[in-house]
Amino acid sequence: MFRNNYDNDSVTFSPQGRIFQVEYAQEAVKQGSVVVGIVSKTHAVLAAIKRNAEELSSYQKKIIPIDSHFGVALAGLASDARVLSNFMKQQSLSSRLTYDRAIPLSDITSRIADRAQTNTQQYGRRPYGVGLLIAGVDAKGPHLFEFQPSGVTQEMVACGIGARSQMARTYLERHLDEFESSSREELIKHALRALKESLSQDKELTVDNTSVGIGGLDESFVLYEGQDLTEWLDATFENREGGGDEGGDAMETDS
Amino acid sequence: MTSIGTGYDLSNSVFSPDGRNFQVEYAVKAVENGGTAVGIRCKDGIVLALEKLVTSKLLKSGANKRIATVDRNVGIVSSGLLPDGRHFVSRARDEAAAWRQQYKAPIPTSSLADRMGSYVQAYTLYSSVRPFGVTSIIGGWDAEAELPVDGQVGSGPKVGSGGKKEGAKHGGPFLYMIEPSGLYWGYYGAATGKGRQIAKSELEKLNLVDGEMSLEQGVKEAARIIYIAHDDNKDKEFELEMTWISAISGPTKGKHEEVPKELREEAEKLAKKALEGDDDDEEEMQE
Amino acid sequence: MNHLPQAWGRPRDDVYGAYDNSHFQTAGPNQHTQSPIVTGTSVVAAKFKDGVVIASDNLASYGSLARFTDVKRLRKFNENVVVGFGGDVSDMQYLDRLLNSLDIRENYASADDPLNAKNLHTYLAKVMYKRRSDFNPLWNHLLIAGLDGEAKPFLASADLLGTTFSSPTLATGFGAHLAQPIMRRTIPDEASVEKVSKDEAVKLVKECMKVLFYRDARSMDKYSIAVITKEGVELSEDEKLENQSWAFAEQIRGYGTQTA
């Protein structure tokens, strides 16, 4: 049943000093649909591909606003992400209540990292099967953090996780130097293009399967979905087929 | 490694017939692949340095600090599994806070090392947990002067606390290194991680036992040693992170702080120069 | 013989008579602090255009006895905030340690985003309110002075009941009666803060300290004063009231030994 004797649980090291259960949990992240995040000097953007189980079902939630100053995007087990995001909401609110202060993003990130680490060192628990991108703005400006099931967290300039996310990361690496000085709109375009890179050939970004979350120095973190995305999608992929059809609706929506 | 597969290495807290705890040995393997970390105990302070391998271009440079502060006067740098290192630091901070609750004074570095040694050792005792996948270097400066008790609001009695020998030296710099087994020693110079062998042999050349190394010199040596230890790994980029702790009268006023940017960059410049010098020597010898 | 646990280790009833259990119960409900023991008196503070001035004397009284004469009741939290403590000194020391541990933790997480005076006031108000709701108050009246998130002068109080209050000038204890009216002559409202310079504010607060020394029997003439601005905290803990004039005392009639 097992690949080897050392991958039954997360409290056993392999002779090489690896913990297979944790590595397998990282694989669960790669099963999730792709999400990307980018920061500029003024904004932090998250963008995600939503999947639906079947034609008639709704789409999976990929971006969760946590507090007015930040949100998270997830790849992997959505129910694990819900546990973590509920915890983050509690911590975030408690910071506002106790200190009247928006919780620093590095702070909230390390709090979930510490929780995740516990799951890799005690028997009878399993690592979280989800990766998160935490993006928003605090007193020190815009930030983007990556969280992995192992409990590793890293501050990034740009990041992509989930299925085929290597393609998105390649795009991001290629345009790395442009991000810092990008405007809000440019940043969104970059995020959408990176997302598109990870999509298989026959798929397109549509108002149904895309999510965008934006936070900025003077704006709260807001989640954009559905018709709110039309203008951005059209502007980003000008020459795509059928793109123009949805354009008309967009003018009537307010964003 | 002869006993691998005989089943005694599948669970923590189990001895093999020849008296080994394999899970602890495997945890050490996790450490051996981590970035090199060194600590130097100088005459007037402690230097901690870490080689941070840059795993992705997308990482924000200069962020992601890994050498942590405990209380105000202690620094911890770990090599191995990053999340385990954070767990270790978080426990150390709890210990330091608990000490303050009890004694209304900062924890001496030796006591912190002792408590953390016990904590790490406890993770080798039970099959329900795994050992720490880190080796941690703890460096601290214990105040040489009589500190006010926490919460003290007046000047207090003119004589200090009792039990002290007239003219004896108190406090100073201290350095310890704790292994996954919970074993710890005090060090003049400590190194762990991938490049530890090279780093150790460099540290041995410094005559740290004499206690003559100044803090500023220690900073330069630490940077140089990290650069040398990294040399085998040349194709990978890395960032050097350095912190220090001086006497109350020194540059950090008894606190654990990041080495100022200018000083670090100067040390890095010298380190690179020293490396180039070495390469030239080798080429000459080959000729 | 009685083997019930409550009889373990107790004298035998058949030898020594029935055991007197009365000391097991207290006479009434649980009681916490009913009154402070060693106390500090007034703290006075005033905002000015670039920051806040705060002062308190260095006396800790034991009832009417001037027991400790070098007690520093202004506590610097970090480079941006000073807390002034009136009321029980041991509770002040407890809070001081609490703030110290908070500061240590705060430095771990976000050294370049320190808690400002507003954050600290919110926190302390929560602590005070929690304790009074446990019927176990910290017997203090605090003034928190510093700058808020927008780097504007911030001054607010929190007391043993968890009550909070903010004003351009604040004073605790006797100062609330004696110093507040004097300070309000110069700084009647938020708008007038802009017109007051640092020197004027310092002079005003020092003047209040003098009046308080004249009229408050639990005060002394050695005091601490702090100025908090964008540049940080200037704290002096060794000030002495200058230019005292007790001539007015001659005119006081109505109590004490008088011949005329």
Please state the average pLDDT score of chain B: 92
* Discrete helix count of chain C: 7
Low-confidence stretches of chain B: none
Secondary-structure content class of chain B = alpha+beta
Report on this structure.
- The complex is a heterotrimer of chains A (255), B (287) and C (260).
- Chain A has helices at residues 20-31, 78-99, 105-118, 165-174, 176-179, 184-197, 230-236, 247-250; strands at residues 35-39, 43-49, 63-67, 70-76, 130-138, 141-147, 153-155, 158-161, 210-216, 219-225.
- Chain A is an alpha+beta fold.
- In chain A, helix 4 (165-174) crosses helix 6 and helix 6 packs across helix 7 (230-236).
- By secondary structure, chain B is α+β, with helices and mostly antiparallel strands.
- Chain B is 34% helix and 21% strand.
- Chain B has helices at 22-32, 82-103, 109-122, 196-204, 215-230, 261-286, and strands spanning 37-42, 45-53, 68-70, 74-80, 134-142, 172-178, 184-186, 189-192, 238-246, 256-258.
- Chain B has a 5-stranded antiparallel sheet. In chain B, strands 3-4-5-6-7 form a 5-stranded antiparallel sheet.
- The longest helix of chain B is centred in the last third of the chain and has 26 residues, at 261-286.
- Chain B is globular, with a radius of gyration of 21 Å.
- By secondary structure, chain C is an alpha+beta fold.
- Chain C has helices spanning 13-16, 89-109, 117-133, 174-178, 180-186, 190-193, 198-215, and strands at residues 38-40, 43-48, 51-57, 60-62, 65-68, 74-76, 81-88, 140-147, 153-159, 164-166, 169-171, 222-229, 232-240.
- In chain C, strands 1, 4, 5, 6, 7, 8, 9 and 10 form an 8-stranded antiparallel sheet that branches. In chain C, strands 11-2-3-12-13 form a 5-stranded antiparallel sheet.
- Chain C is globular, with a radius of gyration of 24 Å.
- The mean pLDDT of chain C is 93.
- The chains are: A alpha+beta (255), B alpha+beta (287), C alpha+beta (260).
- The A-B interface holds A 5-6, 10-19, 110, 113-114, 116-118, 120-124, 144, 150-152, 154-159, 169, 172-173, 176 and B 1, 4-5, 9-12, 22-23, 26-33, 56-60, 63-64, 81-84, 86-87, 90, 123, 127-131, 133.
- Chain A: Its main location: cytoplasm.
